Predict the structure.
Amino acid sequence: MKTDLPIETRLQNARTALHIALLGGGSNTAELRQAVRDLEAEQQRATEAQAAQEAAERQAAQEAAAEREAVIRAASQTLLESRNARLEIVRKHLSVTRTMPDTRSSFI
């Protein structure tokens, strides 16, 4: 079998060879069965490796999103504090101290 073929093709070819040997009444199918088992194990390892890679990519994307969220949250907190400080300055600047007139006075 050629090893440059995709695993699915090699597995299908091995299964076909096994079925032909079984249908032809071949007595020595142990090697073919072992080849099919080896290819299935290789395919399983490839599938697991791909799933692990995809899980790692998802995890990295989630971590990046969480980091962006933390940066945005910190920036919004800074903006809020800055806004509140500016409003406090404006409030103090515009506040007028008014004296309450004495209502007991007869000159009012």
Summary: Residues 20 and 26 are 8 Å apart (CA to CA). The longest helix spans residues 30-94. The mean pLDDT is 86. Residues 7-92 form one domain.
